[in-house]
Backbone:
């Protein structure tokens, strides 16, 4: 094989390895480079991200959602700052085999989501999740 072909194939092999690595095992710096969010309005951004990642398909958050996972009202008071962030960063590292997916959130996305959850927990209108009976009654009344 001519030397130049050898160099080209080695470079291509390195590129493939790099792509596989960044795609399947993205390191934190890479997530921060590729998925930064603007934190001028962290609460608003957090709200958008909760919608984007569809956290409510498993969690009850701010008056709506499903309780497949724990209901999140009060979570920012229940968990310390580090554990809360770790849940968002890598759920499996806290509880192996958890059904909560790793969303590969960047640090700024995590901060935005934490700000939104904190704002909900500190808002005076925040109420605990309605129990099943109340929900059923509301459904019956069409409300
Ligand atoms: C497929 C379902 C699912 C989705 C989607 C999901 N989670 Fe979870 N989450 C869980 C489950 C289940 C747990 C509890 C972990 C366990 O017991 O295995 C959990 C735990 C948590 C906890 C810790 C709660 C506590 O009380 O300890 C936080 C915080 C959390 N999730 C936030 C989020 C956020 C934010 C999103 C969206 C980015 C999200 N989750 C999306 C299923 C989900």
Residues:
């Amino acid at each position: 094989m001519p030397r130049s072909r050898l160099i080209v194939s080695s470079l291509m092999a390195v590129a493939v390895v790099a792509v596989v690595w960044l795609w399947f095992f993205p390191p934190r710096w890479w997530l921060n480079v590729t998925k930064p969010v603007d934190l001028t309005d962290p609460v608003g951004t957090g709200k958008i991200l909760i919608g984007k990642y569809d956290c409510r398909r498993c969690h009850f958050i701010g008056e709506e959602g499903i309780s497949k996972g724990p209901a999140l009202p009060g979570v920012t008071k229940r968990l310390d700052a580090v554990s809360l962030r770790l849940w968002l960063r890598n759920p499996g590292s806290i509880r192996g085999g958890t059904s909560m997916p790793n969303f590969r959130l960047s640090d700024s996305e995590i901060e935005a989501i934490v700000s939104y959850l904190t704002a909900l927990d500190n808002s005076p209108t925040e109420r605990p999740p309605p129990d099943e009976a109340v929900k059923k009654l509301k459904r019956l009344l069409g409300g």
